[in-house]
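Possible regression after last week's pipeline update?

I re-ran a chain I had predicted before the update to compare outputs. Posting the input and the new output here so someone can diff against the archived version. Not blocking, just want to make sure nothing changed silently.
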Amino acid sequence: MRRVVLTGTAYSGKSTLLEALTMQGYRTVPEAETQIVKELVERLGPTETGLWIRRNYFKFKQRVGERVAELESDIHASQDEVVVFDRSAICYIAYCALRSCEVPPVLATLANRKEPAQVFFLTMLPSFDERSATGRIMKRTEAERLSKLIQHEYTERGHHLTYVPEFDADQQKNIQARLKQILEQIL
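New output (post-update):
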């Protein structure tokens, strides 16, 4: 399997582009953290989810790491098949750095054993939205810091980042331009 990762900070368009790549016929893997947050919001509500995450950040990231491992174990792909991931364990290590949290062992293990063949770094969209109704707790200043931490974590591990900027203020045109860049450069 040739692992391709879409990464970037909150509100950079990763999930939207992953969906577009799925529609183009690529095999894709959704973001583990988003799944965990959604499950928590369904159980606790948005406000309590944010509070629980803040109070239990290590445990939260441990759950995220376990979900990443589950998602990866469900993939049965040929050696040449391209599989596109919305984030990787390396991204979640950057989140731990942002929150001054110890890295859960499952994330460290995954980051060291599963190397992406290609990493696309999506820049943050100017119309950043905190999305508090979804249980997310990221503020714009944190997102900017996270962006730098993600870049650092990947480059420290020797990965080249292919930057995918915003091309157009019109959302649909921007999605198409970003998708075009990725399709032209994907393995």
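Follow-up from reviewer: compared with the archived run. Residues 90 and 112 are 9 Å apart (CA to CA). Marking as no regression found.
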